[in-house]
Write a structure and sequence with these properties.
33% of the residues lie in helices and 22% in strands. By secondary structure, it is of the alpha/beta class. The N terminus is likely disordered.
């Protein structure tokens, strides 16, 4: 038997096993384990966020041995795709974590910030006595984050790179946030495509996502799989809100994701100012992580639309807060102001400090500008909750809660279908991931009706197997 025939026979006896360790039945906690040809490859390694039932999963040991994972591949840097890395490394993972250059830079920023928030929340819980654990401990600390950061490696995008024998990978531009990609994993000729989070066609700062031309097995996000984003001129919406706040002598607070959303908001305010459409109202960007991400924007101009000059001018217009002491100085200023502060789902960060002082004031506007996961304060506020719990204490919600959906960095249903529309072959199977139940199921039906593709919504920790040449088992 020739060497080539022997190799082909070997391939036909091999399976690809895929286990859904996160991002299944929920928007958060993305983790997908691919086992094939004697190798274990993890795609993303995110934290669960939202309802307590999900958050508690972050404390559980994975149903696999992290020491046996050969590599981790990151689609992008958001916490729900990278935030579990310190726990993974602490549990025994010893290999490399690959992502694009901006993804690696931002992941380092996010992990440090997340560790700091974990430490601060544990400290506050112990001081305030509002945790049932004694003492309350952080999910991970800064030392854990630093150990994970040592495993981060930068990889080129838009280029096939050999991972192992008969396994290669390619990272393709995907919009959404700086450095984000979808991942193509070629295993002995069978192509697995992981969408990561797909960006918008007409993003203010980022180019339209690239599209896969082929996929044998497709994993597609469904955050907004059941809806279309409003067709609004965001600049006009922001203008009207700002002038309403100015006339009311109030305060506008915008909880914002530090990566891309904060920079988009800064860009919008800067553009309004250049056009003479902004009143004389101070704007503060109070997010240490957002400040660090601005540095990444400045140094990676090829990944977004802004020039270095534009980045500089934008940052000169908006006051960037440099210390927690300054946060309190801003609170003491009685005049109207705009505050952009983390975090985007109101789950932690500097925005909580502002809310403890402003949310009970009817002249305050709280503007939500991104997806609010189930169980987060952001979702509760969006749904009209009359009081909100912060650091163990309840605060009445008298502020006006506003929402702009068209600022989302996630593709809506039409954009998701358009992204998939470039695939020329019929995939063996499509897995609908990274979505709440309704959004995922609506998208499943839509894909089936539009393309005729076989789709399913995997359950957490479920496993499926594919033959390297034929069809799936266990779907």
């Amino acid at each position: 038997m020739s060497k080539e025939k022997h190799k082909t026979t070997f391939m036909q006896n091999e399976k690809i096993n895929i286990q859904f360790l996160g991002g299944a039945g929920t928007v958060t906690g993305s983790k997908y384990l691919v086992e094939a040809l004697g190798k274990k490859i993890m795609i993303d390694c995110g934290l669960f966020q939202g309802i307590k039932k999900l958050r508690l999963l972050n404390w559980d040991s994975l149903p696999i041995d992290p020491a046996e994972i050969d590599v981790v591949l990151l689609t992008h840097a958001h916490l729900d795709h990278t935030g579990y890395l310190p726990r993974l490394v602490k549990s025994g993972f010893k290999k490399s974590i690959w992502g694009t250059a901006p993804t690696i830079d931002i992941t380092e920023i996010i992990l440090k910030d997340s560790a700091k928030i974990n430490e601060e929340e544990a400290e506050q819980a112990n001081k305030g006595g509002f945790s049932k654990h004694s003492p309350a401990k952080p999910l991970y600390n800064l030392k854990d984050a630093q150990r994970a950061i040592q495993h981060l490696k930068k990889i080129e995008s838009n280029k096939w790179i050999s991972l192992f024998e008969n396994i290669k990978v390619r990272f393709q531009y995907n919009g959404h946030i700086l450095g984000a990609t979808f991942i193509e994993l070629d295993i002995a000729g069978k192509l697995l495509v992981f969408s990561g989070d797909i960006g918008r066609k007409d993003d203010l700062l980022l180019s339209p996502p690239s599209q896969p031309g082929k996929a044998d097995i497709l994993f597609v996000e469904s955050t907004y799989g059941d809806r279309l984003h409003p067709i609004d001129k965001v600049e006009n919406l922001i203008h009207d809100i700002v002038h309403d706040v100015w006339e009311d002598k109030g305060t506008l607070i915008i909880p914002s994701f530090a990566v891309e959303r904060t920079q988009t908001l800064m860009y919008l305010f800067w553009q309004l100012r250049k056009k003479g459409r902004m009143p004389d109202i101070p704007i503060y960007m109070d997010s240490p992580m957002g400040d660090n991400v601005l540095d990444v924007f400045y140094n990676t101009s090829g990944w977004h639309k802004l020039t270095k000059k534009e980045c500089t001018e934008m940052c000169e217009y908006i006051h960037i807060v440099e210390s927690y002491k300054e946060t309190w100085e801003i609170i003491d200023k009685k005049r109207s102001k705009i505050i952009i502060a983390g975090s985007g789902m109101v789950s932690g960060g500097r925005v909580l400090t502002y809310l403890t002082k402003y949310i009970d004031n009817p002249k305050t506007r709280l503007l939500l500008v991104g997806f609010q996961a189930e169980g987060t304060r952001g979702r509760q506020l969006l749904n009209g909750i009359h009081e909100v719990k912060i650091y163990g204490k309840y605060y009445p919600v008298e502020a006006q809660v506003l929402n702009i959906q068209s600022l989302s960095a996630h593709a809506d249903q039409a954009e998701l279908l358009n992204w998939m529309g470039a695939i020329k072959n019929t995939p063996e199977h499509v897995f609908i991931v990274h979505g709440e139940a309704q959004a995922s199921d609506v998208l499943r039906v839509k894909i089936k009706d539009k393309f005729g593709w076989e789709c399913s919504i995997p359950e957490l920790n479920s496993m499926v197997s594919f033959d390297l040449v034929t069809k799936a088992e266990g779907v």
